[in-house]
Every structure is written in C-alpha cells, then in structure tokens.
Design goal:
This protein is mostly helical and about 200 residues long. It contains 9 helices and 2 strands; from the N terminus they run H-H-H-H-H-E-E-H-H-H-H. It has a two-stranded antiparallel ribbon with strand order 1-2. The longest helix is centred in the first third of the chain and has 18 residues.
C-alpha cells in the first residue's frame, strides 16, 4: 500500500465516524473505484497515477493549517470539528472517481520522429457538474451537514461557477458558509503551491 493511500485511510478512519462512512471508504478501496489510482487532473496538478489521493491529503493538511490560524478561529469564528474538516478536504474531489481514462496521442520525440504516448482524457459517465457531483456521491453513503455540503459544492470558488450560474452564488456561499471559503483556499494552496503543473 502506498504511503499516500495509507495516510488517507488513517486520516479518514481516525476522524470520520458517522453512519455510512465505513461503506464509503470500502467503496473507495474497492475495484468499483479508481480513487487511489486516479490522477487529480488530466494535464495539470497531480496528473499522474495516485494524484487524486495525494491531492486530497494535501488539501486536508492545508485546510487543517488554515483553520488553526488565530484569526480564523477568533475573528472569523471558524470552529469546525475534525470530522467536518476531514470530510470536506478528503472527499471534495470524489467526483473524479472513474472520471479519467488513458488514451494514446501522437507527438514528436527528441529525434523528430512521431511516437505514441499515453495521456489522460476525461470520460464523464455521470455529467453532474463538479462540486455538486461530489456532494451527490457522498450523500449516497452518508449525510452531510449543510456547511459540509456547501463547502464541497463551492470548493472551486469562482472558477467552478458554470456558465448559467449567477456568480453571486459563490460569494454568498463563502459569506454564509465560511468552510467553503477555507476549503477553496486550501484547494488552491495545494494545487498551485504544493503540486504545481505536471506535464508528461
């Protein structure tokens, strides 16, 4: 078992205790899910086998650090349980399970000759959006609090708003559900500062 997979399972098992959580973890570990093998993206951060689990653990650590800030606790009143933080961070991108496939593309190698190379491509069998799909999948196993659901739904911030959505929804969600802002910040920190762009 990889170190990231072991760390994910440890954090999950120690913090997430609500009814149905065990079934969700069982699903993530099963042959029905590629969670621990999937990339975090097709071309950018974590675009390699295991990138999704690694990204989820990175977001967890970033979120925990953010929530420990004195300003977050005292001024912003961000007082969330360890279970809520683990659910939001570890499962925010569960929508990417069974989402990517490997296809072969052509490129010129260093000798100027054409060669085939493997690359990730999207194969979305459940086109239900991004954050909302994660909420949908999780609630098939266990209940989410409203704070958790909104955090996961809006973790992409303004870049996740679809073309038909009123962009003020994102700002309103951040204002009414501070965990959404904290998770979005942790997600961006992990994406841009810890993982960065990966090109094959």
């Amino acid at each position: 078992m990889s170190d990231v997979k072991s760390e994910f399972i440890k954090i999950y098992s120690e913090n997430i205790k609500r009814e149905g959580a065990d079934k969700l973890l069982e699903y993530l570990r099963s042959d029905k899910s590629d969670f621990f093998k999937a990339p975090a993206s097709a071309r950018y951060h974590g675009s390699y086998e295991g990138g999704l689990a690694e990204h989820s653990v990175n977001v967890y650590h970033c979120l925990k650090d953010y929530l420990l800030r004195e300003r977050a606790k005292t001024l912003y009143k961000m007082d969330f349980s360890s279970e809520t933080a683990a659910i939001a961070a570890l499962l925010h991108d569960i929508c990417k399970v069974n989402f990517y496939t490997v296809e072969y593309r052509n490129r010129k190698n260093s000798k100027g000759e054409w060669e085939k190379y493997p690359a990730y491509a999207v194969n979305d069998a459940l086109p239900y959006g991004h954050g909302e799909k994660s909420v949908y999948i999780i609630t098939g196993f266990m209940k989410l609090s409203r704070e958790e659901a909104f955090a996961i739904r809006y973790h992409m911030g303004f870049s996740g708003a679809n073309c038909n959505e009123d962009k003020t929804n994102v700002g309103n969600a951040f204002e009414k559900f501070p965990l959404a802002f904290a998770l979005s910040t942790a997600d961006m920190e992990a994406t841009y500062f810890i993982e960065g762009k990966h090109t094959p």
